[in-house]
Design brief:
heterodimer; A: mainly alpha; 13 helices; globular; B: alpha/beta; 4-stranded antiparallel β-sheet
Chain lengths: ~290, ~260
């Protein structure tokens, strides 16, 4: 087993995949934690699909798919952030923007015939195809995103859990929303390279969603989210090596399994606790009634 | 006593609609003011004006001698809209901690001092028992206590509580009022308490502010909650009925208005 893993690691494309995957995992998990708390999952998903249009359109303007994707999704992110700091209420307009962008993506594909193979790579990702240059690019953008996010994280956490109170303390909700959506747009584009635009949920929502179900404070949630993301990406890539199935499938299957198990576990915990609580309350009522007698 | 809040001829227009016009009030330091009025009368808007969150359309407004928005560090605010954290396990304590110096740059590290402050306000709001449980599983009354604790961070000199009794049953309403009265007695803070029902607050209020028809009157409960004063404010005939120590506000055609709705 270990011999096999060592053998796979001797290939450059596997090492590249692990590095790029780890970067996307860390960034996705950290940004995703805020996405889950702010309840903007749908916007995150939409940004990835909007990015698809940028990636296909980029070919027409002689840009790389990532550049096209970054340009259009950052633009879309800024618009989303500026038009509604409380995004969860505007999912209709996000849905409509999403559909026209996917439509445009198809149109660009029709204009540029030779692109169909690459379109599959954009939609479903190909972590084994990541080049050395793309890793440098990913590293550079991840550091900028994480740095900005950490600089803002205190304000952003406060504004995410208590928007009205934060506004009362002089925090500009719309500025925060725009900054956050820009960071989200970049993260989504980077994560798309690993798992593809259709599977971005896997890295952005999955680990953070699982962590937020159990972790009671900011740091435990954030760190758990990062650990889950790294473990799933590494094991997904190794699973792809062993099975020669697409890595995007392996990663998303692992995240989905963990998410399902975590949901069942959470229900189980709640049921156990509530029955314990009821027993406690019952005992207390008994106690009170004995006293009142 | 010095003036905590001074409102002079304040008007507010939002989205082309006149919400408030010519509202004036002087509130002294340490007063407990009950703020009442029908839904949509502009109570919350007036409270947001004090925080500098709503631009004024004329008039002047100062809080502790400073213009609105500049005194926010001295104000503890409990907003009306509640937080949405149904799908996370974030504890009530971490929610309060988020509000603690939440407007600083950098990461949300907590220091020993900040943890002590969070513990202090949770104790003051009487919420220690459930502070470490996920906020999403708390009952309505428990959630309100946590939001009250948030408002107490930084020892505010003015507490603006926007409907802290919303969705509480009469027993929990009574407890909440007692808790706030105790906090006021302990800290000497000025309290603006927005509510719908006057009766549970009668014993703790110093004065009453009644907002209706875009205007407001302020004064002792007996003067403000009178047939003459309210008829003038509403611009229609209002009758105030006092019976067994309870107050009912009745529009002349017989409907009981908001302020008696919980009875």
């Amino acid at each position: 087993m270990i011999e096999h893993i060592a053998n796979y690691l001797s290939y450059e494309f596997v090492r590249n995949a692990l590095v790029a995957g780890s970067l996307a995992a860390v960034l996705g998990a950290v940004v995703g934690y805020f996405v889950v708390i702010r309840k903007v999952s749908f916007a995150a998903h939409a940004l990835a699909h909007i990015g698809f249009t940028g990636a296909t359109g980029a070919a027409l303007f002689a840009l790389s798919p990532l550049e096209g994707m970054l340009a259009i999704s950052v633009l879309a992110g800024i618009t989303m952030g500026a038009t509604g700091s409380r995004l969860q209420y505007s999912d209709q307009s996000i849905g409509m923007t999403l559909s026209i962008c996917m439509g445009l993506g198809v149109l660009f594909l029709a204009f540029y015939k030779g692109f169909a193979g690459q379109a599959t790579a954009i939609l479903f990702g190909n972590v084994f195809g990541v080049s050395h240059n793309q890793i440098i690019q990913t590293l550079f953008l991840s550091v900028i995103c994480l740095g900005t996010l950490l600089l803002f994280s205190r304000k952003l956490f406060f504004a995410s859990v208590q928007p009205d109170l934060a506004e009362g303390r002089g925090i500009s909700l719309s500025v925060l929303a725009v900054v956050f959506m820009m960071i989200l747009a970049v993260s989504v584009s980077l994560a798309s390279q690993v798992v593809g635009t259709l599977l971005v949920f896997t890295l952005i929502i999955g680990p953070a969603g699982i962590a937020s179900r159990f972790c009671r404070n900011f740091w435990s949630g954030m760190i758990t989210s990062v650990i889950i993301a790294l473990i799933t990406v590494w094991s997904g890539i190794l699973m792809a090596c062993f099975t020669s199935w697409p890595p995007s499938f392996c990663i998303s299957a692992i995240v989905f399994s963990l998410y399902s198990v975590s949901g069942i576990t959470q229900r189980f915990i709640i049921r156990m606790k509530s029955s314990a609580l009821h027993a406690d309350q019952y005992n207390r009522c008994e106690h009170d009634s004995v006293h009142s007698r | 006593m010095s003036a905590a809040i001074s409102i002079t001829n304040v008007g507010v227009r939002l989205g082309g609609h006149e919400i408030l016009r010519a509202v004036s009030a002087e509130i002294s330091s340490g007063e407990f003011i009950g703020v009442f009025g029908p839904n949509g009368a502009g109570k919350s808007t007036l409270m947001r004006c004090l925080l500098g969150l709503v631009p004024l359309n004329g008039g002047k407004l100062s809080v502790f001698g400073e213009s609105a928005g500049r005194a926010n560090r001295m104000i503890g605010y409990m907003p009306q809209t509640r937080t949405h954290l149904e799908n996370t396990a974030l504890s009530a304590r971490s929610l309060v901690a988020a509000a603690q110096e939440g407007n600083r740059w950098g990461m949300p590290w907590s220091t020993r001092v900040s943890r002590e402050e969070v513990g202090r306000v949770i104790q003051l709001a009487g919420a220690e028992e459930y502070a470490d449980r996920p906020f999403s599983v708390l009952s309505g009354g428990e959630k309100q206590r946590i939001l009250l604790a948030q408002a107490l961070i930084g020892e505010p000199r003015l507490l603006i509580l926007d409907e802290p009794l919303a969705s509480l049953d009469p027993r929990n309403q009574k407890r909440m009022i007692e808790c706030i009265a105790e906090i006021k007695a302990a800290t000497g803070a000025t309290v603006l308490f927005v509510a719908h029902d006057i009766n549970p607050l009668i014993s703790v209020m110093d004065r009453v502010m009644y907002v209706a028809g875009g205007s407001a009157v302020i004064g002792p409960a007996d003067d403000v909650i009178s047939s003459e004063a309210l008829s003038k404010l509403y611009g229609t005939k209002i009758r105030v009925v006092r019976t067994e120590g309870n107050i009912f506000i009745v529009i002349a055609n017989g409907n009981v208005t908001e302020s008696a709705r919980h009875d």
